[in-house]
Amino acid sequence: MAKHDHHDHDHQHHEHHGHGGMAEMPHRFEHAEDWVGAFDDPARDAWQKPDEVVAAMAIAPGMTVADIGAGTGYFEGRLSAAVGAKGAVIATDLEPDMIRYITERAHKAGWANITAQLGGATDPGLAAASVDRILIVDVWHHLADRVAFARGLAAALRPGGQVIVVDFELTSDRGPPKEHKLAATAIASDLAAAGLVTSMASESLPDQYIVVARAK
Ligand SMILES: C[S@@+](CC[C@H](N)C(=O)[O-])C[C@H]1O[C@@H](n2cnc3c(N)ncnc32)[C@H](O)[C@@H]1O
User: Fold this and answer.
1) pTM for the full model?
2) DSSP strand pairing (131-137 vs 208-215)
């Protein structure tokens, strides 16, 4: 996506709903085709560094990985390859049309190990102790109850599991409007309140940070 595309899309969406604050979150991403141009813009790779994000997840073949708020499935091809034929990827989204889109995309692309399923606003919808890694990119600021959601993520982790949260630096020109951005410390605090131990991944993303959370 062009440098400001994501910001403009997100900003435009917020304009429709006003700027009254977090009570209005989350806003909607109802029609996948409206978002695919921005989310899957090949130019996004230059700053999103998806290979580096997936490397930070330390995925081993055979693992089960969830991508929460997967959107149009930008990360799915890489996650599918990382877990391999014996692994599984669960892509969730709040929007039924994103689930429809990812399911069709996975079929066309031959990502046989990917399942797309609807997630809940306050509950990620994952079974207890069922996943090894959870990726959540540019979603945290949309959550209606961040600590409740983090508790759901914590409960879904298998022993040794990790949650990997990628989001925009407060100073970045990309991502949501500044008033909706969250500092890494705020996300780490939400995850800690859910009983997880957090650390910052070492990375070279120009606009984002990566928070990693593990069970105690
Ligand atoms: C900015 S997009 C990011 C999409 C994708 N992670 C990416 O990096 O391309 C945010 C997505 O999160 C979804 N979302 C928001 N709240 C959610 C929730 N509670 N559970 C699952 N998905 C959610 C939205 O519907 C939207 O598709």
Assistant:
1) 0.91
2) unpaired
